[in-house]
Every structure is written in structure tokens, then in C-alpha cells.
Amino acid sequence: xxxxxxxxxxxxxxxxxxxxxxxxxxxxxxxxxxxxxxxxxxxxxxxxxxxxxxxxxxxxxxxxxxxxxxxxxxxxxxxxxxxxxxxxxxxxxxxxxxxxxxxxxxxxxxxxxxxxxxxxxxxxxxxxxxxxxxxxxxxxxxxxxxxxxxxxxxxxxxxxxxxxx
Length: 165
Ligand code: HEC
Ligand code: HEC
Fold this sequence. Notes:
The chain is mostly helical. It has one domain (31-156). It has helices spanning 3-29, 39-44, 59-67, 81-94, 114-121; strands at residues 101-102, 105-106. A two-stranded antiparallel ribbon has the order 1-2. The longest helix is centred in the first third of the chain and has 27 residues, at 3-29. The protein binds heme C (HEC) (2 copies). One heme C (HEC) binds at residues 44-45, 47-49, 52, 65, 69, 72-73, 75, 77, 87, 109-111, 136, 138-139.
């Protein structure tokens, strides 16, 4: 191999390695601040509650949520067809890898997933979700003050009534 080709080959390998590292880094940072940039999703699915991070449900679960928008947790969240198709595609593309089903059925709630209950059971006193400022664990923004920006980092956490440890 000529020196130039060899150098190019090494450069290519370097770029691939750098890309893989960057991916791993973002995947890790993604546990705290999710990367989401989809105005339609943020507008249509962030008006009644914060737009939830797509990464926290599987594709299977998102399909199920999006298939039942006319009877969405006691409200009607239906969308016009093309809008719905666009949001479904966005959610599927950004969905998480974790299995978010139970008994073979897709869970519709992040708050019912194993990951969520494990992450949230230690530091939150019983009864916190029932407080007026919280009302529901689905009200992420009650504790994660930057949830509207998909940021769930520790520094912006403020649990009404305080944490248990
Ligand atoms: C008209 C108001 C409204 C709109 C618009 C809306 N939702 Fe909801 N959504 C709700 C209500 C009410 C709940 C139940 C909240 C609770 O339990 O505290 C909910 C709950 C959810 C949950 C479960 C939260 C959890 O983990 O417990 C998901 C997921 C969800 N919505 C996704 C969406 C998506 C995706 C869209 C856009 C297509 C959307 N929502 C648009 C009202 C809405
Ligand atoms: C009653 C307060 C409260 C509510 C409501 C709440 N959380 Fe949390 N959340 C916490 C606490 C406390 C932790 C634990 C922080 C720790 O252990 O570092 C946490 C941890 C997390 C983490 C992990 C952050 C990290 O640094 O590893 C994510 C992601 C998260 N919550 C997402 C959500 C989502 C999404 C919702 C809504 C569906 C939600 N939370 C609702 C209090 C809350």
C-alpha cells in the first residue's frame, strides 16, 4: 500500500473510532439530558404535560400510545394524520432499547416501567406523588425543573417536600 493510501486508511479508522467514542459519550450523557429536537413533537405532545423523552419507552410502547390518542388517559389527544405519522416516525427512531412491556403487552406509561420505579423508589417519600405540587409521578416537571428542555440532571432536581436521603 502506498504511504498516502496507508495514511488515508489510518485517518478513516481514526474517524470511525472517534465517532464510536462520541456515540458512547452521548449515550451516557443521554441518561441526564436527552437530545430531542422536534418542534412538532414538542408542540403537540408537550402542551398538557412535558414532552416525555422518547428514549424512555420502546418503539412497541410508543406505537401503542400513538394508536390510542383519541382515548389518551381520559383525554382526547388525537392528531391530524400526517402530523401523527410524522411524530410516530420520530418516536420510533428515538425510542429506547429497554423492554417496556409487561405480560407481553406494551406499557403506555414511563412511570410504570421497571426502570422508572427502580430509579424513583429510593429517594422519594411515600405520599410525595399525592402532594398538590406534584399530583402525579407523570408530572416530571414538578421535580425535574428543566424537564421541558429534556434535562433530567441532578442539578436541576427539586423534590417538593424534600428527598429521603
Ligand atoms: C389533551 C392533553 C394531552 C395531550 C395533547 C397529550 N397528552 Fe399525554 N397525557 C395526558 C394526560 C392527562 C396523561 C396522564 C397524566 C397523569 O397520569 O398524571 C398523559 C400521559 C401520557 C403518558 C404516560 C405518562 C406516564 O409515564 O405516566 C405518555 C407516554 C404520553 N402522555 C404521551 C403523549 C404523547 C406522545 C402525546 C402527543 C401525541 C401526548 N401525550 C399528548 C394528556 C395529554
Ligand atoms: C416526585 C419527584 C419526581 C418526579 C415527579 C419525577 N422524578 Fe425523576 N427523579 C427524581 C429523583 C429524586 C431522582 C433520583 C436522582 C438520583 O438518584 O440521582 C430521579 C431520577 C430521574 C432520572 C435519572 C437521572 C440521573 O441523573 O440518572 C431520570 C432520567 C428521571 N428521573 C426522569 C423522570 C421522568 C421522565 C419523570 C416523569 C415521567 C420523572 N423523572 C418524574 C424525582 C422525580
